dTDP-4-dehydrorhamnose reductase (Flavivirga rizhaonensis), 296 residues
Amino acid sequence: MRILITGVSGMLGSSMAVELSKAHQVFGTGNSEMDLPINYCIFDLSKGSYKELIDWSKPELIIHCAALTHGNYCQKNPMEALNVNGYSVSKLLEATDEKVKLIYVSTDAVFSSGIHLAKESDCVFPENVYGKSKELGEFFILNSYRNCLIIRTTIVGMNMYRDKSGFVEWIMNSSQNNEEITLFDDVLFTPISIWDFMEEIKFLITLESFSSKILHISGNEVCTKYEFGMLLLEEFSLNVKKVKKGSINIFTDRAKRSNDQTLDCTFYQEKYNRKLPSLRKTIKTMKKVYNNEKRD
């Protein structure tokens, strides 16, 4: 299958491009130079037309991973966030015919703090620009007749590019450098590793059509950011003494973010007979990948 993946300069997109290229013809786009075993081009998603991108890749399936995810940046640059995270979906639909499938990777941030273990049927009410921009992308799919799928998730993982770092790298690097960090013990989430998430993507693209417009695919266990960080460090045999508990409410200069970022994945698991990972399985997957990369 010919697959176009956007955002391959990011953590999820780069790993997904490498994994899917083992069985498919993958075309990828990002915002910087990349060294990947796929067909790659730099493409600006803020462009008015995506015809050039589609003519180049001629996809049968598009996996739209690209997004501006930094909450504070989105808050300060709302039009850019809405364009890249939201209107890009409309442009992809406009540039392709009805035979092309589209998977849009969305987020738990479309929900408000008042919902615990949000279901696909719950009303969205994003509390920041990032969430609103992703809700806009969902809007275009929900109002399309096309064979499209929205996947809401909360991914964790490690970047294959050493010059980039995310939540997991920050925790581990801080411990290795003996630096004190604060992790929220009042923020709940249901994390899934990018590699476990990719297994579900690999399953879904074998289906002839997407019979549901929205699926929640995340971890199968609720934890706090503090609990996640402590378990991560313990699994990697790293020092936990410099990790402090804290509250998200202390950080008043941050873009508003829900205290409850949990997703209920019951519908997906029962509909497709899939078992999503526990917290410990998520951590162990990251340890396995990390060890394999060290050996390489």
